[in-house]
Amino acid sequence: EVQLVESGGGLVQPGGSLRLSCAASGFTFSSYWMSWVRQAPGKGLEWVANIKQDGSEKYYLDSVKGRFTISRDNAKNSLFLQMNSLRAEDTAVYYCAKIAVAGNYYFDYWGQGTLVTVSS
Amino acid sequence: DIQMTQSPSSLSASVGDRVTITCRARQSISDFLNWYQQKPGKAPKLLIFSASSLQSGVPSRFSGSGSGTDFTLTISSLQPEDFATYYCQQTYNSPWTFGQGTEVQIK
Fold this sequence. Notes:
- The complex is a heterodimer.
- Chain A is mainly β.
- In chain A, 0% of the residues lie in helices and 56% in strands.
- Chain A has strands spanning 3-7, 10-12, 18-25, 34-39, 45-51, 58-60, 68-73, 78-83, 92-102, 104-110, 114-118.
- In chain A, the strands form two sheets. In chain A, strands 2, 4, 5, 6, 9, 10 and 11 form a seven-stranded mixed beta sheet that branches.
- Chain B is mostly beta strands.
- Chain B contains no helices and eleven strands.
- The chains are: A mainly beta, B mainly beta.
- Chain A binds chain B through residues 44-47, 50, 59, 61-62, 95, 100, 102-113, and chain B through 31-34, 36, 38, 42-46, 49-50, 53, 55, 87, 89, 91, 94-101.
């Protein structure tokens, strides 16, 4: 059974930093692109970042470029999101998601999410 | 960025009703269109990928159609567990973008 379990969320002041983790199990983690998606309270879904299987390619939402860094440790089946210079508008539930590729790209599994609150 | 627009933003329907949600892309995205269901406090769940392919384990009352710029998610006979918010998503171009969501409520 595929499982994705996020951790690391919490309350942080504007300008602060936070590192999110996602522990993956039930599939060959090193064979798949992975992603972070967020959802502000009461709002819709917003893709944040993608990372290739070996970490050699990374893509970001423009509003987080230069502030957020996606990374992975295939030996530990883990995905990370380092978030620096946090802003109030980064407040959201952050989900990690596994990317499936079958002609198209789509998120076939999601974690339960971890809440990040940026506030003074 | 490719803007995705869903309609309606919300709808009220009864158990057994046929429900149709539409999603329009601002430019052609071929069939790089996915649909997700999200219930309150839960993670989204994949329903349909590549515009019309049903994800394994998803009931056959869900179906998707369309190509290019106009897409449809249909629930043939609404069930109590289908009351949720539905999102379309394009993965044709980065940044991958979602529609604003359609909330399906009980009439």
